Amino acid sequence: MEAIPPAPPRILIVDDDDSVRDVISVLLREEGYNCVVANGAEMALDLAGEEETPLVISDMKMPGKDGLWLLENLRERLPDTSVIMLTGYGDTESAVDCLRRGAVDYLLKPPKLTDLIRAIERALAKRRIEMARKRYQKKLERKVRDRTAELRSALRDIANTYQNTLLALVAALDAREHETSDHSQRVVSYTSAIAQRMGIQGKELEEIGRGALLHDIGKIGVPDAVLLKPGKLTPDEWLEMRKHPDIGFQMIQAIPFLDTPASIVLSHQERWDGAGYPRNLQRHEIHIGARIFAVADTLDAMTSDRPYRKGTTFTNAIQEIKRCANTQFDPEVVRAFLDIGEEGLIRIKQEMATKKLQLPQAEQDAHDAEAELARLTDLDDDVDAAVPGHSASDEDEPKSAVVRSVAGNKG
Ligand SMILES: [Fe+2]
Q: Per the database record, which ranges form the HD-GYP domain (predicted)?
């Protein structure tokens, strides 16, 4: 249904000739229109700007600024105002020009009342349709914008949920090994920093981060007797332990968005010189994410305190990693790693610690509860501490000469 305006639409009559202006306005007022008048183009532009004016009827030839000038200015400043031009007899050329420049109609002077009213009604009806179309268009655009925002927010939620699910999975593994999840998080940070140094960004960077986060996820499939065994593993137990990259790969490779992380999980124990496992890959056969991870993991293993030893300094760890470039590690990765520098690496570790302190309250509470649980578990462990050595999970397979010597050579 068409919306009925509460008052008759305002029509502005523009003519330098008083008599024409007055006759038209008087006639139109009698027909019930709300008329205002202007004796020139500039005055008309001012009046039209003061109040909503759906229609302007303007003479073409006026002293000073003419009808064309008014038409152009109205089109530019008040595009919702329709314009009907009044032209002199025989001036069809400029009348056509007016239509080309956006006038809705033109009438020859002096216009017949019936022609004038017909033209006004046509112009107003056309404008109403045009305004309705614009409103509809705006509404559509707003709807599209709202839906896009909703969709974006839903995707963000999914991404967050997905990331939290991965974190929970890793936390579950860490809990089983009586480890805090700080190690995994720090390894992700070091891995991402090195990758960025190498110019990796966007989706590839995210996937490498996920691969680093999930690297040991396959340990979920390693029996407790092996994973949590205090002391050294037997050769058979090592065979079990060395299955974890394959188990991890099998676990996540079927999930399409974990395709690349799965490759990193599978090859995270490989070495540049081919002495790693499970496939003895070497050099560029190993996924770049896994080559970067190897350096990041070694750095964190060496610089973190363990129950049975203090972590070494960053200086020592960096020297050791540098020494193992070309054997254990991809030299290009080591170069990017060295580029970050000791200060940069220490800053990453500190940032991770600060992030932990800035957890929102709910997360903080959960974290406190977790810490309390860990403390109670530790008390249990202390009771059992008469057993010498340490759990197989305390130190992963040897990662470098230094780690190997500190870890008690389990490989
Ligand atoms: Fe591993």
A: 158-353
CA of 242 to the centre of ligand 1 (A): 8
- Looking at CATH, the fold of the domain delimited by 10-142 is given as Rossmann fold (3.40.50)
**Cβ proximity of 246 and 203 under 8 Å:** no
Ligand 1 centroid to Cα of residue 393, in Å, is 10
Question: Rounded to the nearest 5 degrees, what angle is found at the Cα of 328, between the Cα atoms of 325 and 334?
Answer: 35
Cα 306 to Cα 179, 183, 301, 342: the distances in Å are 10, 11, 9, 21
Over the range 236-259, which residues count as b (16 or more CB within 10 Å of their CB) and which as e? ebbebbbbbbbbbbebbeeeeebe
**Residue of 350, 287, 298 lying closest to 322 (CA atoms):** 298
pLDDT along the chain (411 residues), means of 10: 70 93 91 92 94 94 92 94 87 84 90 91 93 93 92 85 81 72 84 95 92 90 85 89 93 84 95 93 94 95 81 92 94 95 90 65 52 53 39 41 36 28
Contact 289, 331 (CB under 8 A): no
Amino acid (1-letter code) at residue 293: F
Instruction: Give the burial string for 104-142 (b: 16+ CB within 10 Å, else e).
Output: bbbbebebeeeebeebbeebbeebeeeeeeeeeeeeeee
In the reported structure, the alpha carbon of residue 269 is separated from the centroid of ligand 1 by a whole-number distance in angstroms of 6
State the distance from the centre of ligand 1 to the C-alpha of 349, rounded, in angstroms: 21
Closest CA to 42 of 81, 12, 73, 80: 73
Residue 178 to residue 245: CA distance in whole angstroms = 20
- Under CATH, what is the fold of the domain 178-363+389-407? Hypothetical protein af1432 (1.10.3210)
Domain boundaries, the chain: 10-142, 178-363+389-407
Helix (H) or strand (E) holding 82: strand 82-87
Residue 38 DSSP symbol: E
Cα(228) to centroid(ligand 1), Å: 14
Say which DSSP state 2 is in: P
**67, 17, 22: which is closest to 44 by C-alpha?**
67
CA-CA-CA-CA dihedral for 53, 59, 62, 65, to nearest 10: 40
